[in-house]
Structures are given as C-alpha cells and as structure tokens.
Amino acid sequence: MSKYLAKRLAALEAYVPGEQPQDKKYVKLNTNESPFPPSPFATRLARQAAAGLNLYCDPECRTLTEVAADAFGVKAEQLIFTNGSDEVLDFAFLAFCDETAPAVFPDITYGFYPVFAAKDGVPFREIPLTSDLRVRVEDYLGVKGTIFLANPNAPTGVALGRAEIERIVAANPHNVVVVDEAYVDFGGESALPLIEKYDNLLVTRTFSKSCSLAGGRLGIGFASPALIADLKRVKYSTNPYNVNSMTAAAGVGALLDKEYFESNVATIRKNREFLTDALTALGFDALPSSANFVFAKCSDISGEMLYKKLKEKGVLVRYFDKARIREYVRITVGTAAELEALLAAIRAIKEGK
Ligand code: PMP
To answer: Which of 221, 256, 291 is the last residue of a domain?
Structure first.
C-alpha cells in the first residue's frame, strides 16, 4: 500500500477471484464458467462489431436492449446492461444502501457482497444460513435493510422458489430486495415476473455462465423504471461506456441463438446429476444444486486437502477458507470428459495415490 492511498480504503480487503492459472492446462472446474465456447452466431456478431471500434459504443445498448426486452418479455425502461453482473451489483450497493438501509445478506453467499459494501462505506449485516446451509425465509421478513440474495445461492447451489422470494419482497416494501440470478438458468425459478408487481425488486442476471460469455463481461439488471433510472444515475456517473460494442453484439447473438443456449443448459443439467450421483457413490455429501456447480464434502478428506491434491493432479476446484464451509469444495459442472477426469483423480486420492 502506498502512502497516497485514501484513508477510507486502507482497511479494504479486495475480492479474490478464482484462480485463472496460465502455467499449465488444468481441468478447470473452479470458476463456474461454461465449458462450451460462445454461440458461433455471437462470435460472428462480435467480430463484425470489431470493425466499428474507432467509435464509442452506444451507452444505452439500444440493439441489445430491444432484443433482450423481447427475449425476456419486459420493457426497455426495465433494463440496464453492465460490465458483468458484478457491476450491476456494485451499482446497487452504491444506489440503495446507506446507514438507514444497510446491506443484508446471508453469512455464506457470494463473497463479493461484503467487499462492495466495504468499498462503498456501507454498513452490512450477515444473517446465518441454517445448519444445513439453507436460507430461512422468515429471517428476511421486515429486516430494515437492502437485501441481497443470490438465488440459487453461491457457493451452495441451493435455490428458493419464486413464492419464497415473493414473501421476502412483499415483507420489505420500504427497502430494495436484490435477487442475484447468476445461476438461475440451470434450474432455479426466476423472480423476474415479479418486477411488474413490486417496485422494490431488482433481479440481476449474467451472460457469463449459461451464455458462455464470461470473458465478454455482460450483466443485466431488471427492475421498475424508477429503480433502473437510479442505477443509470450511478452508471452515467461512473462509466457510460461500460459495455463495449463487441460484447453488446455478442450478447445479441447469444440471446437470439436460443437453440444453442438450451442445448448447453440441458447438457450441464444432465452432467450435474451425473456428478452429484458419482460423488455420492464415492462417499461425498453433495447439496442439491440448481446451479452449474456442486458443493460437496467428503468425511475422510478436508476441503483444503482435496483442493490441493486435485490441483497437483491437474484438476482445479474451488475451496473457501471460511468458517462452516471448510469441509467443502465447489466443483463447476464441466463436460462429461472433464468430470470423468475429476472423478478418476478423486478415486486415486482416496486410494492414497
Ligand atoms: N453473482 C454470483 C452469485 C456469482 O457467483 C458471480 C460470479 N462470480 C457473479 C454474480 C458475477 O458474475 P459476472 O460478473 O461474471 O456476471
């Protein structure tokens, strides 16, 4: 840290993203990316857009907005596009949290939430998940804060139904409820239809997982026009050009190539069931996942040890050095071949090899 760093940032502990190692080729099951390349239509549109990179991109992402409004059945004023969904979440912390509306989220959830809060100087409160790592809806009824719920939750993969989310949104009419649906396409029930009924609901989604565009950085926020206007106030005060032209074009292609999207999601769901069953047969306890990852623990090897030994064997999974979940690893659902390689490595580790 230099002597010039602003005092308010001195204690900030930055978010640590999952490893993106360049030293060798790993079976990479650690950051919940898609194992499939983007839709060929998406990459074609992105290449065409590259020819126009001499001009600034459209800050309103008009073509993408039109296509998305149609794809999701919402109005253009109910949408904002951002640089990954991390950015719309960041905007939401800044726009909707302060001393009178502290951020509220589970103790075990997406690790970026406390970092956003700390960066923005926003107070926050964590509500413990139940002992079996579930969100208890009753804990979120009338909490007097801005609620952030990943649904399905990360890193557990466990999802609440729409009716449960609705209870929370309805019980907090004086605060915004943010439902982070980064993983919803893999089996969760979206709260999106509720934005027509509740003006305090913000639903966020990403193109990083189910649309194979993690490197493109594209996220969406869906909410009432008034909440979207608030978020745009932050966006236009930060970086109006937050979504570059190639990424916006790739987003259009990804949304229009529905067949490719659906086929990839179906494969991931099938592979997730295969992985869950295989881990269970190997003596793991796997939480029921509605996402593109499985959170599992094994009674005879700690999460950290398993993570380390798998890495030695060229397989990357995610381990969280955090109370209550140290026994677990989070495994991204990859291709059938990647999962076979993972399972072979686990069998070898269990046999002491
Ligand atoms: N929410 C959750 C729960 C996540 O796990 C992630 C991925 N790290 C994100 C949001 C952000 O993803 P992105 O910025 O790539 O859209």
So the answer is: 256
Asked if 235 and 89 count as a contact pair (C-beta separation under 8 A), the reply is no
| Ligand 1 touching residue 86 (CB < 6 A) | yes
Same domain, 46 and 33: no
Residue 113 and residue 232 in one domain? yes
Of 302, 312, 306, 216, the closest CA to residue 21 belongs to 312
Strands (E), the chain: 27-28, 79-82, 103-106, 124-127, 146-150, 177-180, 201-206, 219-222, 284-286, 293-298, 315-316, 328-332
Q: Are residues 133 and 23 in the same domain?
A: no
Does any domain span residue 178? yes
Tell me the pLDDT tens digit for each residue of 65-97.
999 999 999 999 999 999 999 999 999 999 999
Per residue in 324-341, pLDDT (tens digit) is 999 999 999 999 999 999
CB burial of residue 167 (10 Å; 0-12, 13-18, 19+): middle
Instruction: Tell the burial category of 137 from Cβ atoms under 10 Å away from its Cβ (0-12, 13-18, 19+).
Output: middle
When divided into structural domains, the chain yields a total of 2
Please report whether residue 3 resides in a domain.
no
The rounded distance, in Å, linking the Cα atoms of 286 and 311 is 20
User: In this structure, what CATH number is given to the domain that contains residue 222?
Assistant: 3.40.640.10
Domain stop point among 201, 236, 256: 256
160, 208, 332: which to mutate for ligand 1, most atoms within 8 A of CB? Answer: 208
Q: What is the pTM for the complete model shown?
A: 0.97
* Residue 252, domain extent: 40-256
- Ligand 1 pocket test target in 110, 217, 218 with most atoms within 8 Å of CB: 110
- 23 with 76, same domain: the answer is no
Write down the pLDDT at residue 22.
85
Give the integer Cα–Cα distance in Å for 284 and 277: 9
